[in-house]
Structures are given as C-alpha cells and as structure tokens.
Amino acid sequence: MPVLLFLIDTSASMNQRSHLGTSYLDIAKGAVETFLKLRSRDPASRGDRYMLVSFEEAPAGIKAGWKESHATFMTELRNLQAVGLTSIGQSLRTAFDLLNLNRLVSGIDNYGQGRNPFFLEPAIIVAITDGSKLTSSSGVQDELHLPLTTPLPGSELTKEPFRWDQRLFSLVLRIPGHTSPDPEPIGGVPLDPSPITPMCEVTGGRSYSVFSQRMLNQCLESLVQKIQSGVVINFEKTGPDPPPTEGKGEMKYGPQSWHSCHKMIYVRPNPKTGVPVGHWPIPESFWPDQNSPTLPPRAAHPQVKFSCVDSEPMVVDKVPFDKYELEPSPLTQYILERKSPHSCWQVFVCNSAKYGELGQPFGYLKASTALNCVNLFVMPYNYPVVLPLLDDLITVHKFKPPAKWRQSFENYLKTVPPYYITAKIEADRVCASVGKKAALEGGIKLRCRSSALSLAHRKDFTQLLHSIMGDGPALPMEANTKEFAGFQLAALNKALKPQGLRNPYDIPRSHLLDQLSRMRRNLLHASICILKGQDQDQLHSVPIAQMGNYQDFLKHCPSPLREADPDQPKRLHTFGNPFKLDKKAMMVDEADEFVTGTQGKGKRPGESSSPAGGGAPKRRRCMSPLLRLGRAYTPPKTPPRTPDNDDTELGNHINNHLESNRNSDKEPSPAPESELIEQSDLLQLDEVENQENRVQENGQSSDSEFSLGSEGEEEAPCRYPSPCQLKKIRNQESQELNSELRVLITKEIRKPGRRYEKIFYLLKQIQGSLETRLIFLQSIIKEAAR
C-alpha cells in the first residue's frame, strides 16, 4: 500500500503570480489534483494512502495523516493559505516522522535481525515549493538542515531521518510572471539548484525545475511512473574491474559511473496475495553482540559491495531464493552490454561476518537470459558453502545425514550471523502456537466479577457516579468500575444466536409506517445478508462535497479478478470519461535513458499506434458520427447564416450538379423535364426509408422491387448468356448499386456541416439511363429539403 505524502510550501512567497494569472499556491493545488487523476488510472491506486503536510509548525502543519479520509485530504488542500515562512527543514522532519510513526508498531525495520526487502512500506514525498531562500524564526539559511532531535522513540537506531523505502521528489516552480518571448526548450526537465535537491538525491529521488505548465504536466506524468514498490540500495564495486569482453575496446582506468550506483530494487507483490513474499534478509553491517545492551545505528540505505569476478550461478531445488529486479542505471547498462547471462557477480556487506572485513557472499548480480534487465538474487548467507551441503543432503543422503555431514554443517553455522537462525526458530514457534490456539467460548452468559453487592447498594454510590462522569477524583484500581477483568458474555443454550435487531417499543409513533415498510422489504428479501435500515432515496442522498470522493469508494470495493490473459493491457476503470484518450507524455528522467523501447501506457486493446488513427472521438449525443477517425472537423469561414438555409443551399448545389450532368450527357432525353419531375414526385419518402431499412438489415435490396420479366420465366442453361440476359444482369446490378448509394447519400445529407464533396462523389457513381439518374437526383433533393 503506497503512501503518497504531499509537502506544500505555504510561505508568503507562494502568493506571487505567474503569467497564467494564478498564484504559485493555486498551481500547487492544481498539480496535486492532476496527480491524483493520473494516478487513479492505475487499478493499483485503490490501496493508496494520501497525506498532506504544510510548512506550518507541527502539529498544525499535519493537515491529513494516517486517520484522515480522502475527503478530509481534499478539503484541507483547498483551504491552504500562504502566510508563513519557508521552514522546509522542519517540515521535512515532520513528514518523515509522520511516515515512521507506524514502523515501530509493525516492526518492518527489524533492527538487528537483517534487512528484509519484503518488509516495506513504500512512500513517496512530493514537495512543491518556489525555491526561495530558506527562512525561519532565527534568520535566513543557505543550506537545508533537518532537526536532529525528534520525539519519536527508536529513531536513534537509524542515522538518517528517512528509511530505504521512502523517496523525496520536489517540484520547484520557476514559472515567470511575464510570458517569455523565447521558445520553450524541448527535452528533459533539468535539476533545480535549490537546497532541496541534495536531499532528494540522497533519498533516491530527484528535483524538477518547472518553467511552464506543460513542463509541470510532464513532471507529474513522470512522478506517477515513479510509484513503485521497492527499496533503495547503494551498490559499490570492490576489487579490480572485469577484463574487456570480445568486441570491446581497451579497459578504461579511473572511476566510472557504474562503480557506484544509488538505485532501487523492485519488490514485486505476490500476484495471488498482493503482498511481497521473501525468505532471506540482507545481512547487517555488524556482527551482533548478545551481551551489548544497545544496537549500533544503521544507515538508511545498505552498502552492498559487488565483485567483478565471474562466478557460476548456484540454485538448488527445494532451497528457496529471492529475486529482485534492479532499476535501470549505469550499472545495469554495463552488465547488459557484457552479454554474459550465464555468469554472475557476487555481492557482500562489509563487516557482516565475525572475521574478515568484506564478509561472506549473500547473493549475486546476474543479467536475465533475454538480456533485458539485471536481477539481484538473495541467497542464504555464504551460499557457496551451504548450497552444496544441502544438495548432498537432498540428493545423496536422502535427508539422512551422516556424522561427517553434520560436522560440516555445524562448522558452517558458526560463520553465519545468529539472526539467520533465531529468526527461523521464532517464526516456527509463532506458527505452531497459532495452530494450537483454543477456540473462545461463545455465548451471552454474564459471569459476575465477585460476590459483592450491587453497586447501587453501596454507600459510596454517589462518589462512584461522579468518578465515572469525570466530576470527581478517580477511584483506586480495585474500585474502578470500568475495569472488568475476564468479563465475558456466554449463553447456556449453544444454539442461541445474538440478535442485532431493534426493540419495536423504541420506534417513535410517527415512524411506525416507514419502519413497517422496511421490515416488510427485509422479510421479502430474506436471501440478502445485509438488512436495509435505510430507504433507497436515503442511500443515494449524498452531500455534494462527498460526490467526487472516488478514492474511498475504491477502497471499499472488492479486489478485481486478475486478467485471463496477463499479456493484455490493463483496463481502465469507468469513473469519469472512459473514452478519453491517454496522451503520450515525454519522459523527463535521466534514468529513463537506459530504458529501451517505447512504452505505450494507457493504450486500449486494438488501438492503433499510428498518428493517422489519433483523430477526435465520435460524439455520443447524436446517432450519426460527427467526425471520422483521421479527419478533424474545421468549421468553414463564412458569414453568419440562419439554420434554415442549409438544406436550400445543398439543394442548389445538387441542382447545379444535375444541370451540368444533363448538358454533358450525350444520351437523348426520353421525356420532357416536366414529366420527369412529376415522375420523381411519385417517389415518396416512406418508400425511400423502407428501402433503406431493407438494405441495412439484409445488406442488399429486394429483388421484387426491380424485377424484370415474368415471375415464372426460366431461361435454358447455356454456356454464354444471351444479350437479353446480359441486359437484365446489368440492370439488376445497377439497381442494387443505386440502392446502396441512396442509403450512403441519405446518411451524408443528415450529417451536420457543409462538406458536400462526398455527396457529389457518390452522385457521380449513379448507374442507369438519364431518366433513372434524374429520378434518383430528384428524390435526393427532396430528402435534402426535408
């Protein structure tokens, strides 16, 4: 469950206005709302927890913490005001203490027992500030300093105020007050030179220097992609560099970028349970002394050394191991460029062993077989020794170890930190105790606390009553009526079930009819488990302030089923506008330079990636589509007109087209024009629509309308058709084509707008004699006028 904490600068300098006409504080509020909308596209966002901290002094600066709902978060965000100082150091310390509040209760830090990557609570702090000078009650500061003292117990066990699964990202607003005449640079968003940038890099995050609204949207898109489940580790090279591989140049001397990397390893949750599962810890950087009263403080990010000596990957059946993917970095790029998927580099933690500074290997780095990522394999401590022993135990000795094997295993256990063994023993003990736990006795029988008289018969009953109400001094523990040790309700009849229904005598007389209807509805719908204590109208009567609270609604929804085909892209939820196309945002992080390929995020199944298919979507309010894919509608630049002369203008266009066709046609006219118009008047609109329906339903026109010759006439089969048959076939084909053209032209006429090119193109395809075409055109003119 990721925790997203927004740290908003509420200093007075956030009241400055940009060239957009809004203040920096308004831009910050809009950025938070945009971030939430972008995040809500991911189905995994239903488990997110949002917090809000301002630059005010604690505890007033904590606007929304662990217990506040999403509605409270949004209300406090809208009510923020810029009236204070730029005390970012104190506010950052407050944010870290707020995140670390539950870690002591959950015990995920596991001090002195190794670092378990699968025990994590990923958190991202998004700080939005203007990058002004750091001010406090003592004056102006040039560097960012976090207070060292904190009231949080257990904070002395970690040197830094943050943890390895907490990262800080800052959006520094640099939007000018006047529009710049220079064009906006295209490319990645640069780092900001403000004092918060070093703090972001230490935690594994980064800062963004924002100069425009477009750049701000790009940063928000990038931040949404940073929400990953993982922990940050420092990887450092030890020993000499590896020899150059074939096809590479000479070995480079001196420090390289891949020698030291401060990157994250992804901890993927189990697809069945949704919770990360692991087996082995990353060892501590000290050998635990059981006689020492305190533990030495640890660094927030473990220092993992890797040796560039090629080793053989080791995996034994029935012995578990943990596998974590590394975030793209210069180290992963260097390992992938070596193209050695069958060799690995061992990893160590200094001072983890009892003797020796480097310690024993606890895993290795290895490129995947497809050479698309680098994985960290976490194995048992000193795995090159224990894995062959376990392999012999399974395959050779068949789980019946001889004395020699036992001696070898005892010698191995002496080199292993003791928390590898005690953690397993404690876990087995807890699991065994849970399995043998006796079931509680159920019922509602009252067991008296003692044989004393009732409290109402006591002489000091008045004093007891005042003590309970808080009006008098508290009584001793033995006389405190709030303490009921072993208080339990039980029933003599085990089949008796407690009833959660209301007493009918408690219902007011004016509500009896309404309650009776509810009881009747619950009785008739007895199959429903939950009884309805409200009317349907009351269930849907939600205050306006809570109507958009979609996050709380998501948390109460059951988890969706997994996709049948995991290769298909995830479906977006239908809250809001499900037909909105996801615009591709530019990648703005330096780490993304190591990612190869194009990421098609937000693309729906069957959607084309070509630019030709990115037109405007169809409008849902009318039956016919307003636009087609690949062609955007642009209104014509004509003077204002009344809506009644659209059809008249289309009729004039068709008349002109008809006149030109009549003059250019070389066939003799079989009848005067007046007779043709009278014949066209006989073609009523109902017949046209009926024919359209037949064509749309069956895909072809009825042959009975345009039948030629007698019904019972049968032609003798011959090898070549006669001229009469050829004429009949041509007439039938032309009639079918004209019927289809009539449907298409009618659809184009009914569309709004002034695009007549397709109508004239379809009119040119009319088949038949001049008389047939004239009748066809007159019917089309009538339809346009209608």
From TrEMBL:
Residues 659-668 have a biased composition (Basic and acidic residues). Residues 3-227 form the VWFA domain. InterPro entries: Beta-barrel_INTS6, INT_SG_DDX_CT_C, Integrator_subunit6, VWF_A, vWFA_dom_sf. Residues 696-710 have a biased composition (Low complexity). Residues 594-675, 692-720 are annotated as: Disordered. GO terms for biological process: snRNA 3'-end processing. GO terms for cellular component: integrator complex. PANTHER family: DEAD/H BOX POLYPEPTIDE 26/DICE1-RELATED, INTEGRATOR COMPLEX SUBUNIT 6. This is Integrator complex subunit 6. The lineage of its organism: Eukaryota, Metazoa, Chordata, Craniata, Vertebrata.
